[in-house]
Amino acid sequence: MSADETNGRTERYLPDETAVREALQGGGRADVARIVGAYPQSPLAWAELADIADSEGRVTDTYASATVAVDRAREVLRESGWQPGDAVLWSHEPNRAYLRALDAKRRSANVLGLAAEAGAAADELAAADPDAQMRIHSEFTPTQVINVEEVQAMLAERMAAQVAEAEAAIAAADAAGPTPYAEQPAYSEPVAPPAPVGAAYAAASDVPPMVAPEADQAVPAPVPASWAFDGAPAPSYTPGYGEAAAPAAEEESPHDTAEIPDDVDGSTPGPEASAAPADEGEPVSVDENDGGR
């Protein structure tokens, strides 16, 4: 132990507890209580026990273990001349057991409603190192007491339990034997669906209309595009068997097709010439006053 003068304040240091630290690093959470029993005067052992209780939510155990850790640290510090208000800085690692115990005591005292003791622990912590509380919350958590070997043991135990559970399920399935298959029904010919009921039959019977589907409608033939401009052609009819044929006179042309003799000039007069009167003289006017003369 030594004392240094820094900014007018005396710094005190806790010694390194090598045996306790190695025992904690080599053991697990369940071994901390045994280590405390082996080193009851160790502030580090009691501080570790307080942190474990705090992580498990055991407030009274946290308060008790932290109080013992603080008392053990004070006893060691007094041997070097420590007085309340002297600096015990976080930067010196062995001092952290004392500072962690003060913070754990402060928090558990607040939970238990011990306001006076919580305030005293907070003041002592701030006097030892004003940055200690912040450093504890940022650099240290109670889970740091769990070493790698303990984590590996926990994982191995969990995996062994899962393997045992799977093997038990397989053994139970083997003991039960194969699962019997359900008896399949005998094969039967497929039944044809009922014929559709026509609308006329449904109208004359008691069949509900919804059961009688409408007859399939014929699909109309495609229509030429020219019909849209020229219109559809007139339908042509072919006389059926036993029907009288149209009169021959109706099929003939309404004009006289007899040949007309050629004129003098050798031309053939058209239908207008044959229909004109024979006398092409001047028309006779009829005067009603002269009696038709």
Automatic annotation (TrEMBL):
UniProt region (Disordered), positions on chain: 224-293
Composition bias type Acidic residues, residue spans: 279-293
InterPro entries from the UniProt entry: DUF3151
Name of the molecule in the record: DUF3151 family protein
Organism listed in the record: Agromyces rhizosphaerae
Classification of source organism: Bacteria, Bacillati, Actinomycetota, Actinomycetes, Micrococcales
